[in-house]
Amino acid sequence: LGIEFRESTIAITSKCTARAKKGMTFQISIGFSSLDNPDGKDDQSKVYALFIGDTIVVNENEPCTILTSSKKDISHIAIILKDDGGQDDEVDETPAIQPRRAAVEKVRADPSAPEESRQDNQKTLLRRLNERAEVRLTSQGDKVSSEKARKINNAYKSEGQLPQDPDIQDLKLYMDKRYETLILPINGTPTPFHISAIKNVSLAVEGEYIYLRINFFHPGGIGKQADTIDKENVYIKELTYRASNDKKDDVVPASNNLSHVHKLILEIQKKYKDQELERKQMEGVVKQDALSLNPSKVNPKLKDLYIRPSLANKKINGTLEAHTNGFRYTSVRGDKIDILYSNISHAFYQPCDNEMIILIHFHLKHAIVFGKRKQTDVQFYTEVGEITTDLGKHRNMHDKDDILAEQAERDLRNKLKGAFQSFIDKVVQQKNFPFEFEQPFRPLGFHGTPHRSMVLILPTTSCVVQLTEWPPFVVVLDEVELIHFERVHFQLKNFDMVFIMKDYTKKTQSIQAIPMAELDPIKNWLNSCDLCYTEGPQSLNWAKIMKTITDDLGGFFAQGGWTFLEADSEGEGGGGGGGDEDSDAEEDDYDPDEEESEEQGSESEYSAEEEDDEFEEEDSNSEESENLGTDEESGKSWSELEEEARKADAEKLEYDSDNGGRNKKKSGGGGGSSSGTLSKKRSPVTSKKRPAHSPPPTNGKKRRR
């Protein structure tokens, strides 16, 4: 072996004269072609080729040492190549990861892609998406609708369960705590109502009477429970009972029964709601099989790890150990958490490069319960150095203590990365290990806000994750139907990214406030992974949209399916794509120079008209009227300009004083004669005074009388 993979001068051929000596390293390869595969399902898989290579070291007087011996499974060290013609065929989910990994590597090598080819590919993907989604969801329509139906709680299964209490016989209100049922007298008949049918109750006192009002869930009401009620039955909206509040001799007032029942209803309602909340939290929790402990003392083990979510209010470290069929985490106070291999959907290993923690994260298929809550994400991590820094502490870049601390932190990082990588290698080498540890691709990362804070979102081979801050963000790309970019507009700095799941009953997930500069790299990455995306300038109400779609799946796909998002992005023309032709034409016709010339022309016309109205005795020569402010004025000194301004102010004051005296004469009486006198004194033709609205005269060319 030389510097290159194959050196022509030292290749093992018939012309080679070099002698093998101790310490020489050789790469031995052998290839086979046209091999038969009896298990092949199609023509391409029935015939295959095989290429095997090993690296060996020559020894003296003993067999060669093979450097490429591996205990790993063949799937971890083999590269399977497929013909391009088989890309259109549907493949299993596990082999589909291999092309996606190759696509990620392609984006890392060449981040740019032609816009036209990308748009053509997206149109093809959107058409296929609608076809597959229609086939998949229409076949599951009955199943989805049956799952949406709300469970109706019956008060009693038979009349024999009705309690024999004197209050019921006396037609009083009665609360059965055992069956959580309220028995109400209606037209002389005790009628049971389960507590889940009661919306709320209220008690009011008016004069000598007390009123108990009971509101029930009914069709057309407000709330999620009202929407899921069977509308074919007849429902009671509300009932009101009245009882006297008078106290007679040795007789219990009838209102006591209403007060007592009101108190019991609130108590049973609270208990029932707590039970429903706990039941809802436990949905999706599957009882795991028992963990098969490996008695060997050489099990893969990692010590001094913290767990998230935390088991207590403070951080508690522990040990993660791999056994025959799962992991066991044991804290220092004795808590034990078991995670089976079969329950792990995706496993992630994130090293401490440019991070303050190094971690192993498990995304589970079915939730497990610890800390009194169900969890689908479990993380084990350890800190690398100080996460928080004391800004008040004076630091010097040449301080020996700081230099030693930085060196110690680098050594700790390398030590932790080696320990975690060794643990992962030992776990993967176990027999029948069902998954691989994925590592995020940092060059493809982008910043966004999936929850509350801005974080770095990192793609992996099969997911989009954020694992550094808690709660984590994990989106499995195989479960994503479509990605939609919101608020894509050239005037905005950020946009949002919405993930629509293949299961339309699941809530959409979103990443907000992504910088606009990241839009094209994200599009290239999604396009290389054959994931369909659309874009639009507005934020959409996805809860309402998904409810409308699930209510009428047939009508949704009959109208084009998800193409309404593509039409919206093309019609609005927000941000990345082009707008409509009319708007482009308007923008092309716009010329700022023309607009400026029009404004100047209108101003000159206005000034000329004003001068003609102001001085009737002067010649209306357009050349002289437009010659305001000539080059002669620009050559005057400051003293001359100040003198002209002083004279203009004096003339303005004189005109204002005359105008004030004229107003006084008008108001003094004899309006007709005084106005006639004033008109003789000050004729607008012979007077040198200017109107108040006219500009002061300039010292350019003198006007001719």
TrEMBL record:
DNA repair keyword on record: yes
Organism: Adineta steineri
Annotated region (Disordered), positions in chain: 85-123, 566-705
Biased composition (Acidic residues): 579-632
Protein name from the UniProt record: FACT complex subunit
Ranges where the Histone chaperone RTT106/FACT complex subunit SPT16-like middle domain occurs: 446-536
Quaternary data: Component of the FACT complex.
FACT complex subunit SPT16 middle domain sequence ranges: 173-329
Compositional bias of kind Basic and acidic residues: 102-121, 644-661
UniProt keyword Transcription regulation present: yes
Chain's role: Component of the FACT complex, a general chromatin factor that acts to reorganize nucleosomes. The FACT complex is involved in multiple processes that require DNA as a template such as mRNA elongation, DNA replication and DNA repair. During transcription elongation the FACT complex acts as a histone chaperone that both destabilizes and restores nucleosomal structure.
Similarity comment: family membership: Belongs to the peptidase M24 family. SPT16 subfamily.
Localization in the cell: Nucleus; Chromosome
